[in-house]
User: Fold these one by one.
Assistant:
Number 1:
Amino acid sequence: MSSSNIYLRKLEMKDASDLLELKLRNRNFYQQFEPIRDESHFTLEGQEREIATGIQGEANDQSYIFGVFMKETNELLGRIALTGIARGAFQNAYLGYFIDEIHNGKGYATEAVSRCVNYAFNEIGLHRIQAGVMPKNIPSIRVLEKAGFRHEGLAKKYLKINGTWEDHELFAITAE
């Protein structure tokens, strides 16, 4: 998947050190939007496990994990994933993403979300993608809105983020 600014590529083991560097650089910035993670997550082995889980998830059609890369430099700018894939009558996945803080506000997240949605609908045959965002995360809400997601409601105490059960605004997009 490519575009004028970025491209998505499934993460591979060779990306583990770049992914670790990205997460360490953004750890404080994103902690307010993330679950509390064990320190082992912030190691090379932790990132290799995450990538291996993504590879295994794809093999089982349960998840697809991509790196968001700058086209000109091949720099890893972020991560985007389709997880919790349900087939049958649902054909649904959950979407999660983040972009390096220094690249926020440049349209890369919106572009990555649009490319990932296109992949989900046209390459792996999903019908619906949903995402949950904390109400205070206005930039992420704008990303989903610009990518064509519709607001579906508020889920109270939806996920445990940074040690607290947080409400999340729910968004979805369907293939239509």
Number 2:
Amino acid sequence: MRALTLALMTATASPALAAPCGGDFGSWVAAMKAEAVAAGETPATVDAFFAGANPDPRVLKADRAQGVFRKSFLEFSQSLISKDRLQKGIANASRYGDIFARAEKDYGVSRGILLAFWAFETDFGAVQGDFNTRNALVTLAHDCRRPDLFQPQVLAAIQMHGLGEFDLDTTGAWAGEIGMVQMLPGDILRLGVDGDGDGLVTLKTSAPDAILSGARLLQSHGWRAGEPWLQEVILPDSFDWELTGLDTQLAAEQWAAMGVQVRSGVVANGLPASILLPQGRKGPAFLAYPNYSVLFNWNKSFVYVTTAAYFATRLMGAEPYRAGNPDPALPVAQMKALQQKLAALGHDVGQIDGILGASTRIAVQKEQTRLGLPADAWPTADLLERL
């Protein structure tokens, strides 16, 4: 279900772009062909790759509209996590137990995390996207929004095509990701693993390849072997809400000394952690460890990452979260109005898009503190009115 969040864009390094974005598509293709040949690809391979390639307007439409991430954590998590998906996850953990054991041994990545992303990206391979991958990549590489990210992906796809690992009718997500765990060509070339021993890395059809490649990707982003990522906690009524948020870290045992209680397991003594309140002090609360932040290299959306991290704990045996009774989420129009007010006050909230991302949360918490409100980083109608 990937919506592009610049997560897997670690493609082959590229100097100044050889193919100017925008303008005549045929001229752009000619420039890209020259760049690919200069990089070592044969003219025949390059010509074959671009034969019949066309921009896809559906890709640009999808790129401009990612409203799913405007949902609150409770809405988003309840829409993605079902009894059926949980049961499928447990079944796949058993079916590919030896592969997950390899992922944990070789790359240090928990099966829970890999299962969660496998579930959310493609429903365990069942829904991998119907966009022609080549056309999606050339569309985004020709577009002037992020050519520096996508032109190297086109070059990587050409290289994969020459290796026999990229068919021109390959389909996937609108942003060019391929396979069961939705990786971009540059990442597949750099980090893909032949998990089934057939001599190829085929993430569309091979679960072992997809699982191990995803594990290696997370390891490359700094995943810490043997460490937790998220634990649900219960906070005391007297808790200082200004201490919540990812920009405040204390040792896990320090949080415990303040009365923070984990609902299952024990706190990971010695590890830094933050108190995470996806929907403020009246909703679920979590301890977020360093591995939680690593997941933003997979997807930049706060609500997506938090939901995946939570689902991974469920797959590893954690209880369902205590939903609580948080204040209602602001509608999109009000959230945009809030972001505009915060920006006018000098806060960096990024794009005015109605999405409660990390920078908007930080700004909300600062204004809550200034106004003497509970500083839990959850925007309310009261806060909007006061601003």
Number 3:
Amino acid sequence: MPRTDHRGGTVDPTRFRTLLGRFASGVTVITYPGPDGVRGLTVNAFASVSLRPPLVLVSVDRASRAGRALGAVPFTVNILAAGQRDLAVHFAGGRRLSEVAWRGDGGGRRLAGCLAYVDCEPWSRHDGGDHVLVLGLVTGTAIGTGAPLLFYQGGFTAIADFPTEDHDRHP
């Protein structure tokens, strides 16, 4: 059933979700310190916000543990590689892995084998309806190579014919 938003428009939530599925996005795992060790969650709503200062944004369900914690603790955005589907499923609450491999750098929050890492300190939190928008001040990065893991139409995929070397960069 369509819902009326605060401006009077109507949007069918099922149709809107289907529409959003037509937008391919990268897949990240956000890791952060919890009371019993490092916690994480799979997120595809990640974006750059500013170069000066360097800021990124993640959108997290406000009812989740991460939705309550992020904005108060440092976090890392782990950008997943094409072969890391099982890791994405693990941190999305699906089939659990018996072991998760970690990198030694990044304050203990970097997952092994990712394409890139963005370490952040909390900058601000904003209302995003049923989600909270968390801005992080970038404090560290690492960049790898390879093809990204993508999320499209409710499933994981990869780019076909992705170059194995860094491709040409535009000035």
